[in-house]
Amino acid sequence: MTVAVKTFPRLSEAAAALSSERGARFFGGGTILMRMVNEADPNVATIIRSTDPALSRISASSGRIELGAGVTMAAILAERDLAFLHPAARGVGGPAIREAATIGGNLFAQSPYGDFATALLSLDATVTLAGGFGQREQPLEEFLSSRERAAATLVIGVSFKRPAADAFRFKKVTRVHPKGISVLSIAAQLPMASERIGGARIAYGAMDRTPVRGKAAERALEGRSLDAAGVAPAIAVAVDGTSPADDAIASAWWRREILPVHLRRLLIGSGSA
Amino acid sequence: MKTPIQFTLNGEEVAAFVESGSNLLDVLRETVGDLTVKGGCWQGTCGVCTVLIDGAPRVACVTLAEACAGRSIETVAGLRRGPDLHPLQTAFMERFAAQCGYCTPGMLMAAKALLDRNPAPSREDVVDAIGGNICRCTGYEPIIEAILDASRSNSRRSA
Question: Which residues in chain A have their CB less than 8 angstroms from residue B56's CB?
Fold first, then answer.
């Protein structure tokens, strides 16, 4: 089956084509879409591309960070102002994949992939979408819960407030090092005031159909100290609200067993792993 | 539907008509005839098809060929200069870093990408650089040692 490729200089044109053509898919870095094309997936009839420079724009010098959906994991790793995100970007594939894999594509990665989206979820990121409605913003959590219906909508960027220094932590658990598919991943944003946690955000990857918030753990951390006794209630409810799958990487049972162990290590350990 | 594209392959201009939606691996092997690039998984997973695009490593099997128009592509075919092997190729031979040899083209290009950017890498840098390349024969150690040997050989030459 031949797949048509259409390239547009402006994102608005690409968004219009994506929403109007049946079987059209947007090309970010190709690491997901080209795999579908190689497998002759009948759901891909047209590849939509855009050369709009807005896709690869990084604005990271202020308190509000804005990233174009076409920003690659390699570009994140090259950006000193985004050092807190480097462990999450480095967790995506090997160097050759990171040169191609984009933030926008990661939002659509099927579990157990999508570790960078897990990091963004813990940062309370907002997704900027373009479609027949023009442009609008949507909380990432809401976007992820309905992303299957968003195939005709173009993600053009994400934004989030820069976390306080040392407040962001990320851990990816794999069987193979340095590059392996997630058994699970955990991202945490832990704002502290007077040595107490206030407004924690915990996100899990590979613990459900999409990255999900660990809301029970977040509630249990409120007002607690970041030590073994303080985090114990959160560890006890870590798996609440999750629904992991059995796959070739790990069983659902194993994922539930080890999530509390790794959450505890992330919270009271040295941080990124 | 065929689309005309032009790019540079190992320093030489190439013009080709490619099937719309083709991946770069198939174009290099079947249209251009560069059989030094191997295909493994066609899923971006094994790294055997690693090539350099504008100096950066990319897995050719999930690279859209039409997105390579105007770019500079390097494969193992361009590593040696005349009768002289590239220091990486020599080091791979001397360290017995190729056993069945199937992963070797991808390993060499991943290693070249590393040494071009970082001529004196640490062992950790090397492990990360080949982290996307699977080898089922060697256990990786001879490959890591070969890349470190090549970097030392580069240092000696430039000293």
Answer: 74, 99
pLDDT band at B18 (very low <50, low <70, confident <90, very high): very high
DSSP string, B83-104: TBPPHHHHHHHHTT--SS-TTH
Question: How many Å is the Cα radius of gyration of chain B?
Answer: 16
Residue B156 pLDDT grade (very low, low, confident, very high; cuts 50, 70, 90)? low
| Cis? peptide before A178, omega within 30° of 0 | yes
Q: What is the C-alpha end-to-end distance of chain B, expressed in Å?
A: 53
**Confidence band, pLDDT 50/70/90 cuts, at residue B117:** very high
- pLDDT tens-digit series, residues A33-66: 999 999 999 999 999 999 999 999 999 988 999 9
Give the structural domain span for A25.
4-50
Contact, A124 vs A161, CB < 8 A? yes
Would you say residue A158 has pLDDT above 70? yes
| Prediction ipTM score | 0.94
Burial of A57 (C-beta count, 10 Å sphere; 0-12/13-18/19+): middle
pTM, rounded to two decimals: 0.94
According to CATH, the topology of domain B2-78 is Ubiquitin-like (UB roll) (3.10.20)
* Contacting residues of A for B113, CB less than 8 Å apart: 95-96
Mark yes or no for CB contact A31/B21 under 8 Å.
Answer: no
pLDDT band of A271, cuts 50, 70, 90: very low
B66, two tokens: 């039409």
Residue A106 sits in a domain whose CATH number is 3.30.465.10
DSSP class of residue B23? B
* Residue of A99, A110, A175 for testing the chain B interface, max B β-carbons within 10 Å: A99
For every residue of B94-141, DSSP letters joined together read: HTT--SS-TTHHHHHHHHHHHHHH-SS--HHHHHHHTTT---SSS-SH
Query: Per CATH, is B87-158 categorized as 3.40.50.1820?
Result: no
Phi then psi dihedrals of residue A245, to 5 deg: -110, 160
